[in-house]
Specification:
By secondary structure, the protein is an alpha/beta fold. 44% of the residues lie in helices and 12% in strands. It is built from 15 helices and eight strands. A hairpin with a 3-residue loop joins β2 and β3.
Length: 352
């Protein structure tokens, strides 16, 4: 039987790589504060944020101590007499608000779609079109800054000497000579560490793009064409409202066609590692789990039984028939706890 592996951001996080939304945005906020603090005019500004510092030079380690969005807000509040921060638009301000609590890429995509629905309710008026243009411009900026962050800050070695002794290696290599497809939702290529050991029957589809690859650019947005609000958005008959609907991007790269070809090539089971299974990828998940060749599902959960339960509830929304979900999803098993492998320690050793 064929095997389909689905990799989400949790796969990178399990390798201790700082690739979550919060990792990325906190780094951007800290670099902005460093620039304002170190510059002659004491100002940093870009399309998203304006920061001005005055009457006090902060020590670099003070700024670097901010590890979360909440840390950043607390720091600015603590030194409000010396730091002035302005956010360039409502959407970005919400993305880094403590109240919204956005930390994961799924959170960002879900919040984007929520804003898109709100704007769509205005209709394809001059006001509505201007709002959606501003919304999309901001998400475009975030995507571009993310690509720069991942390119500059995330280093994946060409090989790791003990990779074959890891639990991840065991997971990927245990399925004999059948065809294996790794559906990678990450922008990074962490999976390349394992490929030399997996044979010619394994291939990878980088569904959400690859860094600095014009033929397979990054995909960020929302992908649920079964949502009732999506029909209303379609009927607005304006392309800007569909700019960040994911399945249009999949067709530009050919990734979706390659996936469908694999699904139709023979009976397959699925193993999910590090994906939230949220509605922002429902179009793809529904296509997989409703396919007649789909025969079973195994979920690698993060640390606790509660996380396994949460993933099950998310997956249930991708099945039309709840009995089919119950029949095909493997029950909780402590052996399916997601492995952890500290790749950053390997990178540090390499540097030394």
């Amino acid at each position: 039987m064929n095997k389909l592996f689905i990799l989400g951001n949790g796969f990178d996080l399990a390798h201790q790589l700082p690739t979550s939304y919060e990792h990325f945005i906190v780094d951007h906020l800290k670099q902005a504060l460093h620039s304002a603090n170190d510059g002659n005019d004491r100002v940093y500004k870009d399309e998203l944020i304006y920061i001005e510092t005055y009457r006090y030079r902060f020590r670099p380690e003070q700024i670097d101590a901010c590890n979360t969005i909440e840390d950043f807000h607390n720091y600015v509040k603590q030194y409000k007499e010396y730091i002035h921060v302005e956010y360039k638009n409502h959407f970005f301000k919400q993305l880094i608000s403590i109240e919204e609590g956005l930390k994961l890429w799924y959170d960002i995509e879900k919040f984007y779609y929520k804003e898109l629905i709100r704007i769509a309710a205005v209709g394809a008026t001059a006001v509505g079109i201007q709002e959606v243009l501003e919304l999309n411009k901001t998400l475009d900026l975030i995507k571009n800054k993310l690509e720069l962050y991942l390119t500059e800050k995330i280093r994946i070695p060409s090989k790791v000497g003990n990779i074959h002794s890891t639990r991840f290696y065991d997971i990927f290599s245990q399925h004999g000579d059948n065809q294996k497809l790794i559906l990678n939702f990450n922008y990074t290529d962490t999976i390349k560490l394992y490929l030399p050991f997996l044979g010619n029957n394994t291939r990878v589809i980088n569904l959400h793009g690859q860094l600095n690859n014009d033929d397979n650019p990054l995909v960020l947005g929302y992908g649920d064409n079964r949502d009732r609000n999506y029909r209303d958005i379609q009927e607005l008959d304006h392309p800007e409202y569909l700019k960040f609907i994911k399945h249009f991007s999949y067709n530009l790269s050919g990734n979706q066609a390659d996936l469908i070809a694999f699904l139709s090539s023979g009976a397959f089971t699925v193993e999910i590692i590090g994906h939230s299974c949220g509605l922002s990828d429902r179009t793809i998940f529904h296509r997989i789990f409703q396919h007649q060749m789909f025969q079973g599902l195994k979920i690698y959960y993060y640390q606790t039984k509660d996380n396994f339960s949460l993933l099950n509830k998310s997956l249930d929304r991708h099945f039309d028939d709840p009995n089919r979900w119950a029949d095909l999803v493997q029950p909780f098993d402590e052996k399916l706890k997601c492995p952890q492998f500290d790749l950053t320690s390997v990178l540090q050793t390499t540097k030394n």
